[in-house]
Amino acid sequence: MSGRRSPRDRLIDTAADLFYDRGMSNVGINEVTERAGVARMTLYNNFDSKEALALAAFEQHSETRRTLIEQHLARAQTPSDGVKAMFDISEQFAAEPGFRGCPFINVVVQDPQPEGPMHALVRAHKAWIRAKFRDIAARAGHRKPDTTAQQLLALLDGASIEAFIQGGVEPIRAGRQAAEILLSARR
Questions:
Q1: Computed from CA positions of residues 147, 110, 125, 96, in that sequence, does the dihedral angle turn out positive or negative?
Q2: Could you tell me which of 96, 186, 93 has the C-alpha nearest to residue 144?
Q3: Mean of the per-residue pLDDT values for the chain?
Q4: At what angle do helices 79-95 and 50-74 cross, to 10 degrees?
Q5: Virtual CA dihedral for 152, 16, 69, 177, nearest 10 degrees?
């Protein structure tokens, strides 16, 4: 079997990169197909629309992120280690060239359909992360782990946005410090 990726996979990967770099509304189908090295008909044989392609790209991105988070959390010995792991992942992304913030936040800001499938995907992804924070908060002995989880997610998302705005990882490091303080305060 060849190591070459399928046309569908190339379309998904190319779309994910282009949509993250420039935003969905600033990227046309022709550019996606050209960069992926496939015919336009191949795109429409695999996806009903540009939005369906974007949804597939973000579904794949969500799965990849979840796997990465699970791997990091599996090594966390303490609740504090778990919080650090979540922020460490964000710091790794923020340190990469071309970092533009959280791709999930970026895509919903651009999507005018709050009840559409992209928003549903992002809500599910963020709920999954919030559940991870909830587990961490419960292990740390917080009486209201759901509230703590929401606060931790707000810190993580805010730090990611600020890292993009400021062009560096310092906001994520500051967010991690705030998250550790929050976690250590057993409410």
A1: negative
A2: 186
A3: 94
A4: 130
A5: -40
Residue that the structure tokens 């994520």 belong to? 172
Q: Which of 144, 156, 153 is nearest to 185 (CA)?
A: 144
The CB-based long-range contact list for 71-76 (8 Å cut-off, 24+ gap) reads 73/132
- From first CA to last CA, the distance across the chain in angstroms is 56
pLDDT single digits (tens) 36-84: 999 999 999 999 999 999 999 999 999 999 999 999 999 999 999 999 9
Give the Cβ contact number of residue 162 at 10 Å: 18
HSE, side-chain direction, 13 A CA sphere, residue 155: 23
Which whole number is the average pLDDT over 132-136? 98
